[in-house]
Amino acid sequence: MSAPALVIGLGNPDRGDDAVGLHVARRVATLGLPDVVVEEAGGDSLALLDRWAGLGRVVLVDAAAPLALPGRIHRLDPLAGPLPRDLALSSTHAFGLAEAVELARTLGLLPQRMTIYAIEAACFDPGAALSPAVAAAVVPAAGRIAAELAEGQGDA
Amino acid sequence: MATKTIRVDTLTRVEGEGALELDIADGAVAGVRLSIFEPPRFFEALLRGRAGAEAPDITARICGICPVAYQMSALHAIEDAWGVTVDGPLRALRRLLYCGEWIESHALHIVLLHAPDFLGFPDAISMAAAHGEAVQRGLALKKAGNEVLRLLGGREIHPVNVRVGGFYRVPTRAELAPLAATLETAHAQAIALARWVARFPFPEFARDYEFVALRHPDEYPLNAGRIVSNRGLDIAVADYEAAFAERHVAHSTALQSGLRARGSYLVGPLARFNLNHDRLGPSVQALAAELGLAPGCTNPFRSIVVRAIEVVYACEEALRLIAAYTPPPAPAVPVVPRAGVGTACTEAPRGILFHRYRLDAEGSILEARIVPPTSQNQSTIEDDLRIIATRDLQLPEDELRDHCEQGIRNYDPCISCSTHFLRLEVRRR
């Protein structure tokens, strides 16, 4: 039996599209995938290093800074190279996800396989709901994560 | 007259938004302006009309790194106005929560924000390649501090469990046991951290500062004490506004604080250490001595060592509080709102944080005043920068800029938690 994969949704539930990672994670959780653990995180990005260190497979879902197309889903493989800076997976504090990933890379604390799904956001207003284009990305993003994890089953 | 302007768009490793401008004319530093944009002014206005009991949770939102400081100053000020005394285990739990914040805030600043300056790295990520063990130690310490906030506060950022009169829920002894184990490990890591930073190369720098900190009869100050200085200031917290004034400066939306009698002053770890060394306890004092740190230290670059010493102290103190803990009969004492004015000052990781509230008979806030440590240090930082820039004027501009940034980071300025952006501008004429 393979070790469970960990899916972590990141974001602040009260800041509009920043919550999209949480929505995707909840959607993945409803799919009842075997050997998949789903968690939500919203606080300290640096705490993620401990959470994922030594794991076989981790999928992160986060909102990305608005670019050209709200709701566009980017799939990133941090093991392949540094994260693109223009996606600005930043935090309101000194360290965001991109910094946490790079720090983990330097310290040798990345999991064996990691995928980041970054969804372009449009609005971070306090108390706002997901904007329509971003909300429309939740089901497709969860589907892509589920498909990827299903494909990966049986891998080491 | 030749004019030269250097712009640095992003100064990282500070909390908040602001700008630094250096004017250099005829080979001398003509002006230093640290412009910062602080949210507390808005908070003071939006607090009006809110219930006094809401002040701790509303003001906690001013800062994601030091929310406990805002909660504590707000709680004590409202309790002061309403004649509420919180003592015994409830007081001890507040002190424990504050220790957690010191640990996480100091560990973040020491290892991830400030240490790269001394070791010649642009950031903690590149530093981690050469100093991986130290970075991991810093991360573990930050996590231990966060763990205290999570257990006592309900969550690590913007805890939600404190209230006027006490807490919503208090932990059992059994719940604190795993935290003690975490803090035992953290204590050893903090000592190693302190020994690591004490070996850094420190620039020669000394100034005759007026240090201002709380002073308590028998504790290293966190939640309570009189406001004292090394130049004879010794006042009750209620007299803060008689001794200190805020002034508006044209280049900043934040007000700058000064002593009415003598102007700029320094708050934070260096001030606390110098004024309260005798309250640290023998083991922490011995460690400070081993690291060559004695009260009377006037080199702000060594504040990183003092911060590390305070992490050791906070771990020790947290362990002492947990060992002595017996759950109180109720999670909070009764509170009856009434009209009045309340003040409080507590020691945020970056220095004293003053709150004053005027409340009506129903307990609604009529007026609020908040003076954060960074606005108190602002003019002292400018004075330091004037000296650093004058000394280093002949250096290449990137080195001059680096030294100025390091000088700012000595104060761990928590400029605002909404963004982290500081523009440095050097104008040479």
Topology:
The complex is a heterodimer of chains A (156) and B (429).
Chain A: E1 5-10, H1 20-30, E2 36-41, H2 47-52, E3 57-64, E4 73-76, H3 97-107, E5 113-120, H4 132-135, H5 138-152
Helix pairs in contact in A: 1-5
Chain B: E1 4-8, E2 16-25, E3 28-36, H1 40-47, H2 55-60, H3 67-82, H4 88-119, H5 124-130, H6 132-153, E4 162-163, E5 166-167, H7 173-198, E6 212-215, E7 226-229, E8 234-235, H8 240-243, E9 244-247, E10 256-259, H9 269-276, H10 282-290, H11 303-323, E11 340-348, E12 351-359, E13 365-371, H12 373-391, H13 397-409, E14 420-428
Parallel strand pairs in B: 2-14
Antiparallel strand pairs in B: 1-14, 2-3, 4-5, 6-7, 7-8, 9-10, 11-12, 12-13
Structural summary, described in words:
The complex is a heterodimer of chains A (156) and B (429). By secondary structure, chain A is α/β, with parallel strands linked by helices. Chain A has a single domain, classed as Rossmann fold (3-Layer(aba) Sandwich). Chain A is 30% helix and 21% strand. Chain A has five helices and five strands. In chain A, strands 2-1-3-5-4 form a five-stranded mixed beta sheet, covered by helices on one side. In chain A, α1 crosses α5. The longest helix of chain A has 15 residues. Among the domains of chain B are: 85 residues, no CATH class; 137 residues, no CATH class. Chain B contains 13 helices and 14 strands. Chain B has a four-stranded mixed beta sheet with strand order 1-14-2-3, covered by helices on one side. A three-stranded antiparallel beta sheet of chain B has the order 6-7-8. The N terminus of chain B is likely disordered.
Feature tags:
heterodimer; A: alpha/beta; Rossmann fold; B: 429 residues; 4-stranded mixed sheet; 13 helices; 14 strands; globular; disordered N terminus
